[in-house]
Specification:
With about 120 residues, this protein is an alpha+beta fold. About 25% of the residues lie in helices and about 5% in strands.
Length: about 120
């Protein structure tokens, strides 16, 4: 009969204690807020016209929700932002959160898929 050796077991060693971090100074609640840079104007107003631009040939096609919103954007080509927002108001994502159509317009403008034209004032 051969002797059976038990499987190797990791030994428990004491972990070295970490050095304590110095406490942070309390923030002054009356301190003035840091100024934020204003967002870049991307042409959104209720009267702005939507123009869908031709996508680059090497651009990846949209998938999932982006594809659904892009199809809605293509249907709204030439219409105003107010029309697009009103038509898509209250649409929920798969997770149940309400989507903001103006945010999607901003996404497509920044992605280069659309351009918004403000009316002459």
């Amino acid at each position: 009969m051969t002797a059976v050796t038990p499987p190797a077991v990791k030994s428990k060693t004491a972990k070295a204690e970490k050095a304590a971090k110095p406490p942070k100074a309390a923030a002054d609640p009356n301190a003035p807020k840091k100024e934020r840079a204003p967002r870049k104007d991307y042409g959104y107003s209720k009267e702005s016209k939507i123009e869908v631009l031709a996508r680059a040939e090497d651009a990846k096609p949209y998938r999932g929700q982006r594809a659904e919103w892009y199809e809605a954007l293509v249907k709204a080509n030439g219409k105003t932002c107010a029309d697009f927002v009103e038509a898509r108001k209250g649409i929920k994502s798969e997770k149940g959160t309400v989507q903001n159509p103006a945010s999607w317009l901003r996404f497509f403008v920044e992605d280069g898929a659309a351009k918004l034209h403000k009316p002459a004032e």
